[in-house]
Amino acid sequence: MPGILNTFLLLLSLAASWWCLWAASHLSLGFALVAVWLFSLMSHTPFALMHEAVHGVGCASKRCNEMLGIVCGWAFPTSFSMQRVAHVGHHERNRTDQELYDYYLPTQSRLMRNLWLYFGNLLGLYWWSIVFSNLIYLLAPWAYRSRFFVQKLAPALGFGPYVADLVKLPVIRVWTEIALAFGYQAIIFYWLDLNFLGILACYGAFAMHWSVLQYADHAWSARSTRDGAWNLKVLPPFRWVALNYHYHLAHHQHPQVPWYDLPKWVDHAAPQPSFWRIYFSLWKGVRPAPPMGASADLAFLFPSANKPANSTANQ
Question: What tens digit of pLDDT does each residue of 231-249 get?
Answer without folding.
Answer: 999 999 999 999 999 999 9
